[in-house]
Each structure stands twice: as structure tokens, then as C-alpha cells.
Design brief:
Radius of gyration: 22 Å
Distance between the termini: 75 Å
Shape: elongated
Number of strands: 7
Number of domains: 1
CATH architecture: 3-Layer(aba) Sandwich
CATH topology: Glutaredoxin
CATH superfamily: Glutaredoxin
Strand content: 15-25%
Amino acid sequence: MKIKIITSFIIPAIVLLLFFFGLKNSNDYNTLNLAGNKIDNIELTGLENNNKIYIENLLSDKYTLINFWASWCMPCKIEHKFLLSLKKDKNLKILGINFKDKKINSINFLEELGNPYYFLAEDKSGKVSVKLGIYGIPESILVDKNFIIIKKFIGPINSSDYNDIIKIIKN
């Protein structure tokens, strides 16, 4: 009888303690800590011609901004003017990876707003994005010539991000 009473109090107390300590741990999925890591050599499919190419063949001599975007993404339209301005800098190339989009819509998007990308790839399944730590769009990753991630930008590039990128690539 005593064992039954003790067990009926101890087991719920242990469960309650585990629950309490579990709440204290943060399990947020945060990929901002990717900075400093080397980017994997991932195979990409060209948007315009379906050619296969590896990401390491696309990175520039100095800096590359890998931008994940889609024509159906309203924040992508907001950041587009900053990408067009960044395109003018000789120290930076912008690699565009179109995310889960229809080819005709993405081409129309770029014809209407301008094309800031030196290479366009597509990610129909979303697997390339996941391998690179992307979980929403728009997102961008700035990498150097050694394939090291300098900084990740979650959400649309804004004027502050634009200034950060310019400061980094000018040094």
C-alpha cells in the first residue's frame, strides 16, 4: 500500500520535473550561427537550361551572395532593388537560387524587375535550400572565395543589410 502511494507521487513528480527542465532548453531552429562554416559543394540545376553545375564552380574570386528567392514571394520584390544595386560592385557576384517556383513565372519576374544574378539555379524540391540551412525565403548567404560563410541574412535584404554587405566586401 505504501509503495503504491509513493509510486503514484514520485512518477508524476519526475515527469513534472522533466517537463519543467525541457521548457528551459531552447530548441529554436536558428541558422544564423552558420557564419564561419565552409559551404558544401552542392550540385545545382540551371534555371534557364537545366545544366548541372556544382556550387564551387560558381563562387567568385572575392565574394558571392547566394540569394534564395521566388516570383510568388512578396518580400523578394522588396529586396530586389538592393540586389540590383549590389550587382554593380566588382567584388561581388550574386548567385540566384529560385525556390519552388514555376520557370515561366521566375523568368517573367526577372524580365519585369531586372536580373541581378550572374547565374540562376532552381530548387524545385527545396532540398538544396535545406542543405544550405535555408528555411524560408528570401534568405541570402554571403560567402568568401574560400567557401566560408561570412554572414547569413534572414528575410529580405534591406538598407542596413545592404550597407553591411558593402562594408564587408570593400575590406
